[in-house]
Amino acid sequence: HPRILFKGKRELGKDVVRLEDVSMSYDGKTTVLRKMNFFFTAGEKVAIIGPSGVGKTTLMQIMAGKLKPSTGAVHWGVTTTRSYCPQDVKAELRKGMTLTHWLHDQHPGMDLNSIRGVLGRMLFSGEDGDKETQVLSGGEGVRLMLSKMMLDEGNVLLLDEPTSHLDLESIESLNDAIKQFQGTAFFVTHDREFISSVANRILEILPGGEIVDYQGTYEDYLRYGQKKQ
């Protein structure tokens, strides 16, 4: 099994992030997200769910600071340090670098033994560290990104569909790691077991941009949905 452990270097204060009037529209016509106003606190494990194309990745990119919203702002708490796993991991990896070199490039102050140690935890043994980033499979790319996230020591995790390329053992390990993580995590996944096991808050983005914000587990959320009907 991969051994994933996320540990924030800095303790997270109570106030994590506030989304204020965040909207996103493309070409001024197609609105993906509309007027989002949400507040998140320490220890929340937030599943962002909804059908394909409703803007889950857009929201993650805005929160990660990779995309500027059309309106509004994201206010991060002063104690927060973020670590992000994008949906398209391969696009983030510079080609022509070995795994060890790429990780060292992300964390220049880190000695190579520590880097190899983290790669080992993610089942990249000895010579695997000399593989080049462009030859990685989808699952290996995500495992490399999770290695980086362990070294980041962020106290807020943003994970966009990390489970779609991982095998079962890696998914179980990631599941346990997020459950044990002391900080706040936001994740997008279509894996219902994963959501059931980890989430204590659900944000469902509906087509048209409306959002249901439910503070509770996925099971409770499904029951709540049935009651409403």
Keywords:
229 residues; alpha/beta; Rossmann fold; six-stranded mixed β-sheet; three-stranded antiparallel β-sheet; 8 helices; 9 strands; globular
Describe this protein's structure.
It contains eight helices and nine strands. It is an alpha/beta fold and 229 residues long. The protein has one domain: P-loop containing nucleotide triphosphate hydrolases (Rossmann fold, 3-Layer(aba) Sandwich). The strands form two sheets. A six-stranded mixed sheet has the order 5-6-7-3-8-9, with helices on both faces. Strands 2-1-4 form a three-stranded antiparallel sheet, with helices on one face. Strand 6, helix 6 (168-180) and strand 7 (184-188) form a beta-alpha-beta unit. Helix 3 crosses helix 4 (112-121) and helix 4 crosses helix 5. The longest helix has 15 residues, at 138-152.
Structural class category: alpha/beta
Contiguous uncertain segments of 5+ residues: none
* CATH homologous superfamily identity: P-loop containing nucleotide triphosphate hydrolases
Q: Helical segment tally?
A: 8
Number of domains: 1
As laid out across the biggest beta sheet, the strand order is 5-6-7-3-8-9
β content, as a range? 25-35%
Question: What's the gyration radius in Å?
Answer: 18 Å
What is the chain-wise order of helices and strands? EEEHEEHHHHEHEHEEH
Helix content bin: 25-40%
